[in-house]
Amino acid sequence: MLPDEVPLIAFDSSPVPGERDQVEFKWKAGDDYGVTAVELAIRLRTPHPAAPEAEDRVPVPMPGAPGAKELSATAQLDLTRHRWAGLPVDVRLVARDGAGQEGFSESLPFILPEKLFLDPLAQAAQEARVTVLREPRPYAELPKNESALTDGAINAAATGRLDAAPEGVRQAALMLDSVTYRGEMFINDLGAFMGLRMALSTLQSAGTKAEADAVEPLLWAIALKLEHGSVADARARLEAARAALERALREGASEEEIRRLMEAFRDAANEYLAAKMAEAMAGGLDGPEQQQDGQAQAGGDSLGGQDFEDMLNALQDLTETGAAEQARQLLSDITNLLENLEFQRGQGQGGDGMPGEQADGQENDLPPEEQELTDAMRRLSEILREQRQLNDDTLAQQRGEQPGQMGEQPGEGSEQGQGGDMEGQGTGEGQEQGEQGGGAREGGGEPGNGRGGTLAERQAELGRLVEELARRGGNSGQTGEEGAGQPGAGIDEETLEAILDAQRRAERALEGGNEGRAILDQERATQMLSELSRDMANQIDQMRANRMGEQGQSSNDPLGRPLTGAGNDGQGVEIPSESERQRAKDILDELRRRYEQAEDEEEREYLRRLLERF
Question: Per the structure, how many domains does the chain have?
Fold first, then answer.
């Protein structure tokens, strides 16, 4: 039996201050039986004489689940709240294995980044906070006062607890007492004033160092609020939501848990944007009703509602399709974008405004051709989903099973099967489409009649929807000399004809009771629908790239510098293209379909493992 070796760990790069005052460094570690934990050990370069060996350890996030034999990563740690922030320290990495053995890296000198506070009262709160935390000495023993145990007696020793406190605690209490003396005359924030007085009372009544340290979260919150206002709270919620979602993606949490955390991050992001806008308005920016002049800007461009929603939707697509690494990267990019966003008065009319708001009350600001193609792709995706469901039901009927037992995949409930989504019935899109000529209602019955009726009737209805899609594409063609004779909406009419032909053959086979033949034609129609959907997604990506390129031509000066503002308008955020996301969805749907149809247990187990990765 081989002996258990001590884990090995080392810095791949020296620690440096990163964005938002984080500590950044690369590291690598290994162990013959697997590394279970990694920590950053911190020691003061010049320790306090009362605690020469004092060392703090901070957990370092590990990529993947604990237990890997070899691993490496880039760490980003926020240590601005650490008691030694701003002081020279020595740092080293610690790796631990399952047996509790520890391995250490070399020790490197570093100055822990500290948060910069410009508000004088925030500086005072922060100074009092670290003065308490950096005091290593305990309280002196309080004198016994046995007479205080009798009825009606007063414990006089309790009023002198501060006299028994170590020097750092007494000094912090004196600071707080000084800055709050007659504070009602110069401290405008009543909540901050009361909080500082509460911290002072806590120090005055504390009898141990642990009780004195309890003022830390209160003083930290007060300093942030005085410095940043309500934005600090929104930023804290955003960071907490980001960290929770990132951790869930890294650890492979359940689909439901990731969906819940994604919604929490979306809410936190919108709350943070609202807080930033409120802060900007307090500084003189026009309100939302005058948003044409007031824009969320950075680098000379504005972050529009559609851009921000595209980022969040792309992130949600990545989380739902299991692309964890891409999702984590995009999550980090979105968070950085939000925190670096600046609000300032724009230089023109009709800006994009805040996410979710459009100029002049319009629902969206896409060019007509791009909007038509996007709408067509949405309808095509619904047809593809229904065709796949029909394929599953046809196969079920061929096997003698009840149609509908196989195809219900996660996220595809009865509403999607009713066909209302396919033509946008109800409000909004459905009313609009009804005004355009009735759509598939020409053939009688409801469009996309879902899973009601026979299989042949459902196949016929899908064929009518494809015909309607072809008519809309042809009727919305480009105008003018450049677009003369070209079909609109970027739809390949020959492919649509081939899809329709395969659907009609499947319909005839179903009418004749030949499910086997129908399945072959249905699969061909499904394959062509999927390919057409990917082609349309690529066209949308190209249109968007061209549009963004034109919009960005004037954003830099001849030397490549931003004309106005500073920060990030989102153009550096890598968002997976529509076609990539559509392909991932297609693969996931196909895996689910094959899993439901597989009869061999070994094949089902293989497909189940693949689905777990998604």
Answer: 4
d(CA 270, CA 248): 21
Looking at the fold, whether 467 and 380 belong to one and the same domain comes out as yes
Is residue 392 located within the same domain as residue 527?
yes
For position 73, which CATH number holds? 2.60.40.10
Alpha helices by DSSP H, listed for 214-295, are 216-228, 230-251, 255-282
CB within 8 A of 218, min separation 6: which ones?
A: 195, 198, 199, 202
The answer on pLDDT for 259 being more than 70 is yes
Q: How far is CA 576 from CA 310, 342, 551, 552, 583, in A?
A: 10, 25, 20, 20, 11
212 contacts 136 by C-beta, under 8 angstroms = no
pLDDT at site 421: 39
> Do 378 and 508 share a structural domain?
yes
Q: Is residue 598 in a domain? A: no
477 near 369, Cβ under 8 Å?
A: no
- Read off the pLDDT of each residue in 457-486 and give the average, rounded to a whole number: 67
383-422 confidence digits (pLDDT tens): 888 888 888 888 888 877 765 544 344 334 333 333 333 3
Contact 577, 537 (CB under 8 A): yes
**Residue 21 near residue 78 (C-beta atoms within 8 A):** yes
Sign of the C-alpha dihedral computed for residues 197, 178, 116 and 303 taken in this order: positive
Q: For residues 535 and 458, state if they share a domain.
A: yes
Residue 355 near residue 367, CB atoms below 8 Å: no
Q: Name the pTM for this structure.
A: 0.46
Same domain, 220 and 103: no
Same domain, 300 and 331: yes
Tell me what pLDDT residue 612 has.
62
Which of 309, 341, 361 is the last residue in one of the domains?
Answer: 361
Domain that holds residue 126: 120-142+159-228
Summarize pLDDT for 18-63 with one digit per residue, the tens.
Answer: 877 889 999 999 998 899 999 999 999 999 999 999 999 999 999 8
Task: Tell me the helix, strand and coil percentages in the chain, rounded to 5.
Answer: 55, 10, 35
Is there a single domain that holds both residue 508 and residue 388?
yes
pLDDT digits (tens, 9 = 90+) for 535-564: 887 787 778 777 766 554 444 443 343 443
The answer to whether residue 432 sits within a structural domain is no
Q: Within this chain, do residues 397 and 290 fall inside the same structural domain, yes or no?
A: no
Nearest CA to 44 out of 31, 62, 56 is that of 56
Reported as a single tens digit per residue, the pLDDT across 309-340 is 777 788 877 777 777 777 777 887 787 777 66
Give the residue from 306, 328, 361 where a domain finishes: 361
Euclidean distance between CA atoms 433 and 431, whole angstroms: 5
The average confidence (pLDDT) of the chain is 74
CA distance 202 to 211: 8
356: region left, alpha or beta (phi > 0 left; psi from -120 to 50 alpha): left
